[in-house]
Design goal:
rod-shaped, mainly alpha, about 130 residues
Length: about 130
């Protein structure tokens, strides 16, 4: 569900930014806007780049050279996606791993108890012989 939440944030951001930046007549001729925000698929990919923090400074610098107010987008977007949502995904992975570890411990404890029971039966049988 964490991945679905992340995709929803990316997709909704891509739709809004495509409408705001790529379809603005004043910005339609700007190469940086078309390069990073020109279509929905390009915009979606740019959101992924910004979330993973891979060359996000290049995206931000080129975009903010044209639209300085985009800093009001980048800071909250990075905080929301890169830090909050990615930590939710990491927490789910850790929770699953902890669940598997507990199951393994339970199985080991059960196996140890079975060995003790077998040893006790063997001792009783040896005693009776």
């Amino acid at each position: 569900w964490g991945c679905m939440l992340l995709f929803m944030v990316w997709y909704s951001s891509a739709i809004i930014l495509t409408k705001v930046l790529a379809h603005d007549p004043d910005l339609a001729h700007e190469p940086a806007i078309q390069k990073w925000w020109g279509s929905l698929s390009t915009c979606l990919w740019t959101c992924v780049i910004v979330t993973t923090l891979e060359n996000w400074t290049v995206v931000a610098d080129e975009t903010m050279d044209v639209v300085p107010a985009m800093s009001m987008f980048f800071i909250p977007f990075i905080f929301l996606t890169a830090f909050c949502i990615m930590n939710i995904i990491l927490a789910v992975v850790v929770d699953c791993t902890m669940g598997y570890a507990k199951e393994l411990d339970r199985k080991e404890e059960q196996s140890r108890r079975e060995e003790l029971t077998t040893d006790e039966v063997q001792q009783v049988m040896d005693y009776l012989d």
